[in-house]
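User: quick one - fold this with iron/sulfur cluster bound?
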Amino acid sequence: MAKVYFSSARALKWKYGDSMPGKLERMLSEVGLGNYFSPKEWVAVKTHFGSEGAHRVVRPVFLRKVVEGLKGIGAKPCVVDTVRIKGLDYLDVANQNGINHLSVGAPVVLGDGLYGKDNIMVKAGEILGEIAVASLIYDIPGMVVCSHVKGHINAGYAGAIKNLAMGGVSSAHRHCGWKCGRGAMHTIGEGDLVWDSEKCELCYQCAEVCPLDAIVFEEGEQLFWDGNTCWRCGRCVRVCQSEAIAMPGDDERFMKSLAEAAGAVLSTFERKKVLYINFLTEIQPECDCMPAADVPVIQDAGILISDDIVAVEQASVVMLQSAIPLPGSATGTDKRDKGDVLFELHKKDYRIQIDEAERLGLGSRNYELIELGAQKEK
Ligand code: SF4
Ligand code: SF4
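Assistant: Sure. Structure tokens for the protein plus iron/sulfur cluster:
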């Protein structure tokens, strides 16, 4: 049975050992990074850099603790994400969100190069066929997947599976474009954008968030979409509050394809070379790639660590399913009733991605929860 380590976000004493960074140090020591990684081995600390306005990413202090832990056993870590917006702009976003070499103590790099085209096609499954895995992630022998748990408009819940699937895969492939990249998860078929001029309020948000300038409003009122340039990231669809643009999608297929893509990424690692750290902190309603981060909808729960991706996801959702919605948040309620806050927000059966990951053999939903308290006095 998989072990899942947990430390609560509550600080019961005003001591470093009771802080979240202090508890993370203890967790890493209990898990034993040396059981997974070797001296001199390169290890990717996979995280999501966020967006210009979405600041609620995994905080640099936690990334630094992971980096220090890896350096402590002699491994060579780097902090990694893949190109979401143009590569140079995305590194600027990382820096703005506090993630840089000085803050985290290791190089901060893009796994698929500045252009997002350094990737290798890897077998995925029935839905995706093959998918373009970032070449650094393909080549590197070890990885610690640091995921910020939050909601998601299509997946309902976003944690380690989504971090690996969307973040381990490039937006597009040099030759087969978006159909081999994460756009294949977002859309089905030809994936063409459909615009409804009747519903459109000409707010231009879709054009503003497009990382490729693939949407232009001609004479200010006629949407032109460049289907050859677009890599079907879906940002435009997600920010449109008038439901005036759509791309053909299917939430169940999306969630299953997340599990497939995560499996493709993991197939490039040997067994027991990937660790997962889920941060149940600043749990906001939407993905960190959106142009803004809303206030948290659930109180911080803590940190979970496992070497089983399914177990760490299952343990995370079990904790979230009995949470109390935070007043003044997107939950729109001041009631203190416990419930499945993320389901109430998005009305998506997000467990599909976890069930599918288990069906694909990525791990098990059966786990033993080991709660760790404060770090021992130094
Ligand atoms: S975001 Fe939606 S409403 Fe705004 S301009 Fe684009 S299509 Fe129109
Ligand atoms: S899906 Fe929308 S935001 Fe993304 S590249 Fe295409 S047009 Fe731009």
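One thing worth noting: The mean pLDDT is 94.
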